[in-house]
Design goal:
- By secondary structure, the chain is of the alpha+beta class.
- The protein contains 7 helices and 5 strands; from the N terminus they run αααββββααβαα.
- It is globular, with a radius of gyration of 14 Å.
- 34% of the residues are buried.
Length: 151
């Protein structure tokens, strides 16, 4: 899928709700803490993630929020906002992102199914996403997933 097709395929997001905003905040809390801890504990992993050499912004379409992961530098940086100049932009709901980050669904499959869309060279991101799999075992993330399943 090229950039133009991704833009055309993107549907109007659902109106943000307080619940999706709360879950987005929890998702970003967990991601930020996990990335900081993982990069500190495993420098080799952090350097391997930098192989993507890109800036990746994820737009949480049902929460009207975004986060950016800077995989073009070491140490990796995480910011709770969009970077309009990001090379890769991914668009999906909070639930789709939770599923992708925990391995309950794969980002590439969500893109193929059209539940997640993108702009830019998404292959750079897809190349390193499997390295994030330990996130699914992260205690805070398991709690978030259990809460989202109960909703």
């Amino acid at each position: 899928m090229n950039e133009g097709a991704a833009s055309e395929a993107r549907e109007a997001p659902a109106a943000p709700t307080a619940e999706s905003g709360r879950r987005a905040d929890q998702l970003m809390d967990v991601l930020e803490n996990f990335l900081a801890a993982a990069c500190q504990a495993d420098e080799r992993l952090a350097r391997r993630l930098c192989v993507a050499d890109t800036v990746w912004t994820t737009y949480l379409t049902d929460a009207d929020q975004a986060f950016t992961i800077y995989l073009d530098r070491f140490p990796i940086e995480f910011r709770r906002d969009e970077d309009p100049s990001a090379e890769v932009k991914v668009y999906g709901s909070v639930a789709d992102n939770i599923d992708a980050w925990t391995g309950r669904n794969f980002l590439g499959l969500a893109i193929a199914n059209g539940t997640v869309t993108y702009e830019g060279p998404v292959r750079k991101v897809l190349r390193v996403v499997p390295m994030f799999r330990p996130l699914g075992r992260h205690g805070d993330f398991r709690t978030l997933v259990q809460r989202s399943s109960a909703s």
